[in-house]
Amino acid sequence: MLAINPKIKFTRIKEILKKTLWILGEKAFLVFLVLLFFGIAFSVTLFYQSSASAKKSQQGTLEKPLQLDEGLLGKVLGIREEREKIFNETKQKQYPDPFWRVIPSLEEKNLE
User: Fold this and answer.
1) d(CA 30, CA 27)
2) Mean pLDDT highest for which of 16-25, 36-45, 90-99?
3) Is 64 in a helix, a strand, or coil?
4) Which residues contact 24 (CB under 8 A, 6 or more apart)?
5) Residue 31: CB partners within 8 Å, gap ≥ 6?
6) pTM score, two decimals?
7) In angstroms, what CA-CA distances link 61 with 48, 53, 58, 68, 87?
8) Which ranges in the chain belong to alpha helices (H)?
9) What is the pLDDT of residue 6?
10) Within a 10 A sphere around the Cβ of 85, how many other Cβ atoms?
């Protein structure tokens, strides 16, 4: 029978990992180019799949033309006009300067 050794030699795994990372580090530009290629290929594939599925789902969706609810549109425009009116009123208000006495002017310092 075959004897199975359940013990894992972590030192051997550590050595293999170090060698692999060292080789990748020596050829960093080539690794960068390969990873860039795979990233672009994955992005193109994902974009193609999403655009193809979007085209399939849109083929039979518009069976009747869209209709505009004019009552709802009137309400929305009314609310918008009210908000715009309130916004424009706030521009015309004159607010007092809260710091007019806190910071002494140069003239007051010269008098002392």
Assistant:
1) 5
2) 36-45
3) coil
4) 31
5) 24
6) 0.39
7) 21, 13, 5, 18, 40
8) 10-26, 28-58, 70-92, 106-111
9) 62
10) 9
| Structure tokens, 63 | 């069976």
Mean pLDDT for the chain overall = 81
Amino acid, single-letter form, for residue 97: D
Residue 35 pLDDT exceeds 90: yes
Count of CA atoms in the C-beta half-sphere (13 A) of 6: 0
Nearest to residue 41, comparing CAs of 49, 29, 30?
49
Q: Which two tokens stand for residue 28?
A: 């960093």
Cα distances from 108 to residues 97, 102, 111, in angstroms, run: 19, 12, 5
What are the angstrom distances between the C-alpha of 73 and each of 77, 78, 81, 85?
A: 6, 9, 12, 18
The pLDDT tens digits of the residues spanning 76-85 come to 999 999 999 9
Q: What angle do CA 59, 64, 70 make, to 5 degrees?
A: 130
Model confidence band, residue 37 (pLDDT cutoffs 50, 70, 90): very high
What is the total residue count of the chain? Answer: 112
